[in-house]
Task: structure prediction
Amino acid sequence: MAKIIDGKKIAAEIRNNLKEEILGLSKKIGRGPCLAAIWVGEYQASNTYIKAKARACEEIGMHFRLYHLQEDISLSEILSLIKKLNEDSEVDGILVQLPLPPHLEKNRIIEVISPKKDVDGFHPYNLGRLMVGEPTFIPCTPAGILEILRQEDIPTEGAEVVILGRSDIVGKPLANLLLQKKIANATVTICHTGTKDLYLHTRRADILIVATGKPKMIGKDMIKEGTIIIDVGIHRLPEGLCGDVDFLDVKEKAAAITPVPGGVGPMTVAMLLKNTVKAYKQNFHIQYDNEDL
Ligand code: NDP
Result:
């Protein structure tokens, strides 16, 4: 029976530590950290994520400013809002909730966010730094997964890590981090829809990380005995929430697994808070204890 990795608990601890830190710092500085979120349109899942982020900020004494914009907002309007927020000394972090409506090209927008306020870690400057082994803001989901591996004492040194999915926000940055010598030193394989024999790769994984956006696509026939599974996916099905992994099917065969909900999701939010506190401290020239990287 697999150990169920309690991402909710790990995330709660991180949030508590941040809360204490903010309490101390805001007395010294005169204000707490502030995260500005831009949400365009009415996409329902985004509404849920925005609410969760707002609640998480509030709970730790972080100010959350929401800019909810009309679906038909023009590129130039959104860019000028971002430029204003870049200049706003009361704002430490800026995020743009994805996905955006089709007329707004994600990359054109993200590259206008100041890299110093890019708490999602999606700006090419921050991704470039990550790539050369000098990470600043690490994208929140990969950062959350690294933290899970650390907290659970899952050895990555020389491990065969197989990642399903090559998105810019999960698969690619995560693969890069895991292969870095001083971070994980793993042997990393990334699979995608062009992968010829998915089973060949998934069945030799010591650690299998699944971020495909395909509900329950991984069953026990696709893993080896004792694999550690990190399930990034999240889907709202009529019977409830599920991940990209068929939890009930694999749970006897895997050594450990992150559940959905309560696995990677809460860690992503915790890492967003952590990145925002980092931006806040950098803003006030307070040394950030970059202990883990
Ligand atoms: P994307 O849709 O951007 O990317 C999905 C990736 O999976 C693509 O690279 C795609 O390949 C690959 N893929 C899809 N189907 C298959 C398949 N059958 N076999 C192999 N590879 C496949 O997704 P995201 O990375 O944004 O998100 C993935 C999942 O994680 C979603 O369910 C999302 O909701 C969830 N998510 C959860 C977060 C959390 O905090 N828990 C945070 C972010 C995402 P190709 O490139 O060839 O198309």
About this structure: Residues 141, 164-167, 169-171, 191-195, 198, 211-214, 217, 232-234, 264-265, 268 surround NDP (CB under 6 Å). The chain has two domains: 28-115, 140-265. Residues 140-265 form a domain with the Rossmann fold fold (CATH 3.40.50.720).
